[in-house]
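Tokens help. Our protein:
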Amino acid sequence: MRACVPLIVAMLCGLAWAGRKESCASRCNEKFDRDAACQCDRRCPRHGDCCEDYENLCIAEEDPKELKTFLELEEETEEAPASNLYSAPSSCQGRCHEAVDKHHPCHCDVRCQEFGNCCEDFETLCAHEGFSHSSDAITNEEIQSISEKIYKADTNKAQKADIVLNSQNRIPPSESGNQVDCCPEPLFTYVSEKLFSKPTYAAFINLLNNYQRETGHGEHFSAQQLAEQDAFLKEIMKTAVMEELYDFLHHQNRYSTEQEFVNDLKNMWFGLYSRGNEERDSSGFEHVFSGEIKKGKVTGFHNWIRFYLQEKEGLVDYYSHIYDGPWDSYPDVLAMQFNWDGYYKEVGSAFIGSSPEFEFALYSLCFIARPGKRCQVSLGGYPLAIQTYTWDKTTYGHGKKYIATAYVVSSTQ
């Protein structure tokens, strides 16, 4: 394993990386470039195709009053076809009461609040035309309250003695793109695998190898693999964590029955869509928890159990981290850099020591309550943000959206 290299070499590596147009170095506010792997224009946060160093390099150059953006865009989410990337209306200007058009990234009809796919200016522009603020709208205070309840209900989380973590070298966020291995030892020194015999852990682990990690190759599930999805949902619904989440959403009038809730979870997480050339090659679960490879880079892969198992097999090489959360017990949060069997992940944030149901519940809560937005939660008295993105090219049900990604927003502030 390589040790950290001198700064001049790291800078040269960073310049070489930028030359492949995977960085915003010297590209801030340039026009959309369909040949680039990621974008650096002002609209890239809205379309989810910013380069991973967009915030560090470009936000500082902008007047924050003029630029609305998400922080810590850690994912290279999929761009729309270049021919119509910015053509679909993303505003309700002149569209209030308009019928649903599946080609539009957001909607302005009377049911958009129910399905969580309204345009951001829906309330401002459409309230005077017969719409009112949804009585089912979930406030930030309610999200923080239910996230604390979920945090306290996670009795399956790891205890301090269950995990020995060796986080080693922390690097500045500006150096996360240099692909330099600054940590000679594995991230996990020890994990008590007795955790993995718990029903939710075992059901979760059964799912991890059901996917082809390269996008562009269609996923085809066997009857056994489909049964494993149902088994996982069945096991997590037995936990206090998911009971808290369902009770909350039920009282918010989002779901009338537990079965309706489970069916929706299965669709939003396990429903297949296409990130690459072939239909149905990806899902929210695969992307977030198992990880994918697209355009020669790691995307998703935000789960500590998956990381530990792959590191144990010699397939993951931990490089460094840029953020370590304030928690002195599990779950904690770590934002790290690593190599996954030949492919680099520049910033991969993950909960550490959490149960599968805990992560599934928090990500689902934020996707349902704040789809495509930053979701402010509270865990053990500490604030934390979770970012989700919706998959806008295809839908299920009556215009409901799949999960494109969900991850912890790691902040060094």
In short: The longest strand covers residues 382-396. Residues 7-22 form the longest helix (16 residues).
